[in-house]
Write a structure and sequence with these properties.
The structure is a single chain. This protein has helices at residues 11-72, 104-107, 197-204, 234-243; strands spanning 99-101, 120-123, 142-146, 152-156, 170-174, 208-210, 228-232. The chain has a 4-stranded antiparallel β-sheet. Helix 1 packs across helix 4 (234-243). 34% of the residues lie in helices and 12% in strands. The chain contains 4 helices and 7 strands. The protein is of the alpha+beta class.
Length: 248
């Protein structure tokens, strides 16, 4: 018996099958690409939210510092330690001893940023002593940045702080998500990004501090940077202290 002749394949059906297979591949590829985008934007979105929350905490800390001065006639000294958020009872002998952690317990504010690191604080020693003499006290904290060419510029203050050209009485800052800083557990964070000179200046400095745009590029001037910093405005400090009759 002669075997039945195989039926010829319908060209239209074949095209539909190929088209369906192509659609499936495109759908799979689209899902994979979408998952990558979601991951990227989720990380970016979370970091952005944490930055906003940290900036809000810094603003709250600055306001609390001014409020403390309006009540006590001076700014507080740094915290006792990373684990004790009360104001240190020891007078500041110099700029270095007036640089440490924000005294969050004394101020009644959150003492950490959104990455679980303690907020840092540096205050001009003379502003921690009553009375603050407006006519003779010089604020010493300078805030630096970098222009598009990477050159250092002053955001607050200048090369020399004087009565006629004041700097800031204090700064409070977060050391950001990456590198250096101290966790709320008291553990120091390791340096993992060689070349981040501007972050190291903030970590080790007591007079000059950097505030600039976030950068993950190690080759840029100053290196990688994600610190967030707020300077306590001197004029606002004086106005609030004067209104509270805390200036001689």
């Amino acid at each position: 018996m002669t075997p039945p002749r195989a039926r010829s394949r319908n060209p239209a059906v074949s095209r539909r099958e190929r088209g369906a297979a192509l659609l499936v591949l495109l759908a799979v590829a689209s899902l994979a690409f979408a998952s990558v985008l979601i991951g990227v934007f989720s990380r970016s979105g979370i970091d952005g939210l944490r930055e906003q929350r940290t900036l809000a905490r810094l603003a709250q800390a600055s306001e609390a510092l001014v409020g403390f001065a309006a009540t006590h006639g001076r700014l507080p000294r740094p915290a006792v330690s990373a684990l004790d958020g009360r104001e240190s009872g020891q007078p500041c002998s110099d700029e270095a001893s007036c640089t440490g952690f924000l005294p969050w317990v004394t101020l009644g504010v959150d003492g950490s940023d959104s990455w679980g690191k303690l907020l840092r604080y540096s205050v001009t020693p003379r502003y921690t002593v009553v009375p603050v003499q407006r006519i003779s006290t010089v604020a010493t904290k300078r805030v630096l940045t970098r222009n598009a060419a990477g050159e250092v510029q002053y955001l607050v203050g200048q090369g020399e702080c004087t009565l006629a050209a004041q700097c800031a009485p204090a700064v409070v800052f977060s050391q950001g998500r990456d590198d250096v800083g101290t966790a709320v557990t008291g553990l120091r964070q390791a340096r993992t990004a060689p070349g981040n000179e501007d972050e190291l200046l903030n970590d080790e400095g007591d007079i000059e501090f950097f505030r600039r745009a976030r950068s993950e590029a190690p080759a840029v001037a100053g290196g990688r940077f994600d610190d967030l910093l707020v300077a306590v405005p001197l004029q606002t400090l004086y106005e609030r202290m004067a209104a509270a009759r805390m200036l001689p």
